[in-house]
Structure formats: C-alpha cells, structure tokens
Amino acid sequence: MYCVKKVLNNNAVLAVDLRRKEEVIFLGKGVGFNKKVNQPFEDPKSVKKYHLQKETSKGPSDKLISAVDPVYLEIANDIIRLSEEKFKAVDTNILLPLADHIAFSIVRMNSRMDLSNPFSEDIRLLFEEEYAIAEKGREIIRERTGYSIPDEVSYITLYIHSALSDTQVSQSLKIPVIIRESIERIEKECGVRIDMGSFAYNRLLYHIKCMMARVHNNEKLNSDMIEFTKEKCAYAFEVAGEICEKLSRELGEPFTEKEVSYLALHIERIRSA
User: Fold this and answer.
1) Phi, psi of 20 (to 5 degrees)
2) A single Gene Ontology molecular function, please (predicted)?
3) The model's pTM
C-alpha cells in the first residue's frame, strides 16, 4: 500500500511506501490523475516505480524533486525504459541526476553557455550501444521540450554507462580523458599521428573498453606476454602501465601485468605502423 505525498503532474506522483517506510516515484500516463495528498492507493503495476535514495550524486532527492520540472523526470524515465529494453539490468538511481542534468542543460542553452564536450567522439566510440540509446533520448527531449541539444548526447551516454557499470558519471568521463591523454603522449613522444576515427584509434579504444570489462567482471586473460613486451616493447609497456594505473585509480580495480602487456602490444603496433 502507498500514500500520496505529492502529485507532481498527471503522469508523476511522489508517494510513501507504507510497508518499507520509504519514498517512491511513480511515472506513467495518468498515474497522478485525480489523486490527492494523503490518499492511499495500491501499487499501479502498469507504470514505472522508482525507490528513492535520500542522497544522489547531485544532492538530496527531496531538493531535486522540488527543483526539477516533472517533464524532465518523464524524459529521464523514457531514457531508462529504453536502456532497460536494450540492456535489461539498469541502475534506476540515475533518474533524478539525469533529469536534473537535462533540465540544467536547457537552462545553459537559454543562457547561451557552451554545451560542447571535447570528448564526444571518444565517448561515442567507447560506448557505442549506450550512445545509440542517448541519441534516442535526444529526440525525446526535442519532442517533449522543443529543444535540440546534440552535444548533450555524450553526457547522457555517460549516465547510461554509469547505470550499467556501477560507476559514477565523473568516473566514466575520466576514462576517455585518460585514453585521449595517453594517445596524445604516444603521438608526441613517438612522432606519429593517430587520427581520431581511424582504424588504429578505434582498435585501441575497443581494446581498452574490453580490458575494462574483463577487469570489472574479474575475467582472466589467457595471454601471457609479460616478459616479451618488457624486453621487446619496453616503452610501450611503460605507457601501457601508466594507462592501466590511471584507470585503476578511477575504477578502483587492479589491472594485472598480463593486461598491461597485452595493451603494450597494441601501443607498439601503433608506434611501428
């Protein structure tokens, strides 16, 4: 049984779960129609239910609910629904932070603030499936608000990725930053040019993406080229070690020397091309 705490609009209701003694948001067509504060009601199975944490990455839940127009909660709900259709298991705690981010991006647009993300292409290449959902989210935003915010697709991608990987959005953003810095170092010190979008660039990004997935899922790498790469690819091994060290700090997960050596082979291939 639930009790209405606040009717946000016809499609959104803030309620209290009387059994669990916690707040929830119901989002779905007509869920708030004719409902009154303190009115008890049964679980409406046909709409989406979100159990709220007291604190989010953007601050207390109650403050976000009060500050964000419910239309952005509906938009975030639609993006989460699309993500669940694609990926099944999604951390729905991104609802309020994602809604707040979308709302603030439109405020910034109206204030003519710069919305560009210099790592948009890296994010698209690293998280292609999440990016495809975010593009659909952009169309939902345009349909519901009239605003087109193309550069926000990469940020929405990071929210979706964080909901799949149990990481903070800030951590997800640091991954392409670390990779870009590492590639720029390889270019500078080895006198090579690795064009973004080229086969070499894409292959390196894809390898790092798979490497992070293996580490996150505790999968063991069969290849053991540690001594070979240390001897024959010493510089590449050094760079790979620094990349893995930075990623390890951001993700909170250790990278084995096997992973370092495997990444070093990819870097060496780029240096020798």
Assistant:
1) -90, -10
2) RNA binding
3) 0.85
